[in-house]
Give the backbone structure.
Amino acid sequence: MRLFLSKKMILFIRGNKIPALIVVALLGLNTTAIAQKIDIARQFKYAQQQTTYMLEALKTADTSKGLVSPRTFEDGKLKLVNSKDWTSGFFPGILWYLYDYTKEKKWLTQAQAFTAKLTDEQYNKTTHDLGFIIYCSFGNGYRLTGNEAYKKVIIQAARSLSTRFNAKTGVIRSWDHNKDKWKYPVIIDNMMNLELLFNATKLTGDSSFYKIAVSHANHTILNHFRPNYSSYHVVDYDPETGKVIQKNTAQGYSDESAWARGQAWGLYGFTMCYRETGDKRYLAQAQNIAKFIFNNPNLPKDLIPYWDYDDPAIPNTPRDVSAAAIMASALYELATYSTNNNFKEKANIILANLSEHYKAPLNTNGDFILLHSTGHKPAKSEIDVPITYADYYYLEALLRSRKFVKN
Ligand code: GLY
């Protein structure tokens, strides 16, 4: 544990010859103070107010062309996406988390309405992002309501996602675009979509979903990671031989850099895989990814990463608050599988800092909760803006923190 004492405190301790034990007790209070800064009730009150403004704005937003869910606020404009977009499930998920916390009917009604707009995606076989789209919306909905119709959607979505698995490569294909560049691209983000498959096996008793998820996770450990446990963004496979052709980036600074959100997806993904399988290799992988992140000299003191750990412009480059929110949520879960308090302390610090320093004033920021995320810097898209998935994982982290933070 690292603690910071002000000059005044040190002089006071010395001047008053305060014994070491009392100093330690004072330091203990200091740590508690960090944890207690996360006032979960206050943050959820704010999240409800801000989301109420968002719902008001959505009433008059342009929803032609199948636009259903808010994604970001860029160039002064609220941007919505259609149900096919990889981010369409996060806003329904946010509404489910507000219902989860409050148990109020108004949030249930809204969550149901926004979830229903994504129903057709259960048949979508053109993207690996079905996990994000369906599990954040219908997955949370099923967890909180037991609605049988939601269960059917989850199972069908797992079937659709499974069609993207190729036994030769042992992994699920992520993207169908850029065919001139990649034959069979798999991105680290894909780890997140495995949760849908693990749960489809639990719901059906059909182990094929589970086996695909395990195969994908094992190949990802083999092929996506560098010796220091940072990960490549894109690994391209040859679907005929199963061999790796190349390792690149799409959204990071360079092929060999550590894109911040990619590291967060890996941390979360392997923690979740350990939950679902009990396989200690996944736990070790998550712990090693955490070590890479927290030993990184370019991680700022407040633990909110720059968008890529290797951008040479650091510190004059944007943060990625979405990566921090994903990390906080993952770390709270990882803390429950680990004997040291380190992960919990890091999660508390991230969550306290997001809550105190990265939250937008009410009814600003396009009515999103958090400021300063970076979507796709190389494409000059969504730089230093609010993004819906940052808010989703922030609320998830707040919910998970209830195990650890007294309110
Ligand atoms: N899954 C896409 C991203 O993290 O931007």
In short: The first helix runs from residue 7 to 15. The beta strands are 67-74, 77-82, 165-166, 171-172, 185-187, 234-237, 244-248, 373-376, 381-385. Residues 1-28 form one domain. Residues 86, 189, 251, 261, 375 surround glycine (CB under 6 Å).
